[in-house]
Amino acid sequence: MSTRRPHGERETGAAPDDPAPGNGGDAEAWVFETLRAECDPAGIVTLTVRVPGHRHNVVTQSFLLDLEAVLDQLDTGLPPLGLILTSGRSGSFFSGADIGRLETLLRAAPPDIEWICQAGRELFARLSSRPWPSVAVIDGACLGGGLEIALACDARVATAAPHTLLGFPEVKLGLMPGWGGTVLLPRLVGPGAAVEMIAAGESIDGPAALRLGLVDACVAPEAALAAARTLIHWRRADNAHMTARRRLSGPVDIDPAEREFLAATSAAVIAGRTGGHYPAPPAVLETILAGSGLPAREAAHIESKAFTRLITTPVARNLVRVFRLGERNRRDTGVAAGESPEATAPRDRPAVVGAGIMGAGIAAAHLRSGCGVSLIDIDPAALARAVPGILEEAAWDRATRRADPARAAALAGQLRTATQTSLLADADLVIESAVERADVKLALLRDIEAVVGRSTVIATNTSTNPIARLAMALEEPRRFCGLHFFNPVRRMTLVEVVRGPATSDATVAVAVAHAKRLGKCPIVVQDSPGFLVNRLLMPYLHEAVEMLREGTPATRIDRVSRRFGMPLGPLELYDLIGLDTAFYAGLVLADAYGDRIEASPVIPALVRAGRLGRKSGGGFYDHAGARSSRPQADAAATIAPLLAPYRLPERPTTDATIADRLFLPIVLEATRVLDEGIVRDGHDVDLAMIHALGFPPFRGGLLAWADSLGAAEIVRRLEPLADLGPRMQPTPALLALASSAGRFTGP
Ligand code: NAD
User: Fold this and answer.
1) What is the pLDDT of residues 600-633, one digit of tens each?
2) 680 Cα: distance to centroid of ligand 1 (angstroms)
3) I want to staple 619 with a disulfide (CB 3.0 to 4.6 A). Which of 12, 312, 405, 613 is the partner?
4) Model's pTM, two decimal places?
5) How many angstroms separate the alpha carbon of residue 462 from the centre of ligand 1?
């Protein structure tokens, strides 16, 4: 927009002095870097966008320049009959703004940001500022800036294809639309629906967009261009687009009582959803309400200012960073060098051994992602129990919140079950998820290797057995690795791919690719006790119990953690994991890291009393039952006698100290993990903490949060906790960062 684009290359047709494709005569095309403008004999110009260098169309600077240039050319020739904006990429209209551009904006000065908002908005507004009508044809993702371009047109045709999704996901990056989305959407669909759509950041499909009034037609993909042409002819005939433009440029039609009701109800819903940690959704509500009583042009200024405020917040910076971490993970093969395609070919005949909680969840994840799976368990009753749940979960329809029976019946054919490992003969990937006993696993792995082919990858879901030890069962340990899922598998997106000393690169690459196929976020970790996540979880859980022993109420400890942004407090998490499971894992971790963290005597005391957590109806809290949605109840009085033998001297404490005691030891453990090379870098630590433990994304990840404090400040905060022992002692890596003013996440 700032630099004028030279005219595009003219491909065919009229004389060189004809400046634009809209000059009538034969069909001709003008080709720009990111779009092609073609005029048909009827005088309708079609702009077909294909932004190079990206898998999906994104709004790049080049596209903006090309759009400006083509609109300039249309202004200088004979006016066209109408304009159609469409994508040259199947299944992608525009997936939003170029994230690289957004990152530049994070560092820009506020006046420059406001200018960029205004310039983009004015450019898009040119699509509906001439006598000819414009129509966007939306097939595929139409998100963020892409939807703002579509909204700037006079009409929209969406396809009914499942890949067509319209939405404003900006709030997920801590932002809001900045090119007129908060101005145009409420004027088109009403302020309530606009607040809901933009503040929630969820997308809707073509038929839903038609019901909402966001699009003018929803048709099959092959009929979309014809529908757009028809709309142009109709608009030319009745001039309805001119009436609509006048309406859309004025204030929103809403009476004061309705406005007040919207303000109150939406504010409450947003506060519930964000816990006060995410500034973008409330800013969306305020912006739409503030702009609704004004002409569109003035509302747009309010939007630019609000967008600028948001993009300069640490939350936006952190969420953009988390988005980038996810992108890096999606591109990652898990190994440094490329592997031969045969070695890493997709695995289409996977099998899971063990039909317990985890095996069933892993089998369901396969079916859900369209991958047939074999499931083996030594116990026929375990299989009989697991299958209905697997099919229900795989056929679960999020929209209707129930399983689709027809889909479940269809998926049943994709699930093979057996009690014999002989079913594994044709498996190309086996995930062992049997009971957590080393002797059982060693014998089972030996059996599996004896049955499967030479190129089959064998993985284990063990939580506590070293991969090196289990690998001893195998003749070819290079094809063996850990594939550690988290409970519940349907919700937890992280998978640790654990590389044993003998694991080959090809095995790691297969495991990483397979986890991604299941929609998971795989992180490669080196074999060591607790791998990555359980090791980082250990100090957090342990410290909560220590504080409980000092007399701090469980409810207070958990409240501080949730206020920090964790989905569950540490003691609530204990109850979810199960205290028996946690006890066993704690022994393994204490064995390895006992110099700083000892196994707590409180956990076995609760286990002995039958308080295993949610599954037994009570742990640190009372629960109505594992499947109940009833809230947990304080069990302080019940567990007091169990805690009594293990009480520690009381310490005066504040909420800030509780937070420091919960989270700073995780940072210390992360510095050790990095020193030992357990993961590649701090980005993987941050991604793992978010995907496995729900560490709050608005803080950018554990180490991004540590950076926000600074290493020197962390050392200072640890000083008053020094008497608690080695677990609060700064590590050499922390001290080095503090003295060099270095960053945990690198330069
Ligand atoms: P589970 O006790 O619910 O199920 C284990 C299943 O293994 C049972 O159905 C049992 O019949 C079967 N089994 C036992 N011996 C077998 C054999 N020789 N061949 C075939 N099947 C056999 O256990 P789970 O919680 O699902 O855990 C399974 C694995 O996943 C363990 O290695 C555990 O460490 C790991 N894991 C568990 C969790 C968790 O939270 N439960 C989380 C991550 C990983």
Assistant:
1) 999 999 999 999 998 899 999 999 865 555 678 9
2) 29
3) 613
4) 0.90
5) 8
